[in-house]
Response regulatory domain-containing protein
Amino acid sequence: MDEELHVLAVDDNLIDLTTAENGLRALEYLGLGDPQQTESLTTNSVMKVNLIITDYCMPGMTGFELLKIVKESSNLKEVPVVILSSENIPTRINKCLASGAQMFMQKPLKLSDVEKLKGHVLNCRS
């Protein structure tokens, strides 16, 4: 039986928004948030994800900070994280990749980027 694939997308831009509007909310969905601030989430709503796609620049917590927390988590460190940014800053890209990001992609995404991402998503399933 095939398992469902769960992707958590994190972006502060409402046009791009899929699931979580910022890094702190993403941590809540992943069960890594402050227990006093996540009272509204039940155990059933904590997400099991196969891939996290996050914007780099967001208020409250950057995608890089989210990446570091995910990679420090014993439950989530194996989950691939893809960072998106509209800015092409080599030091930022290198920092994210060195800290465990699977990919760093520049927005807006091109069809070739989506194809690369699709390959990663399919690899996450196996």
User: Anything to note?
Assistant: The beta strands are 7-10, 51-55, 81-85, 103-106. Helices lie at 23-29, 63-72, 90-98, 111-125.
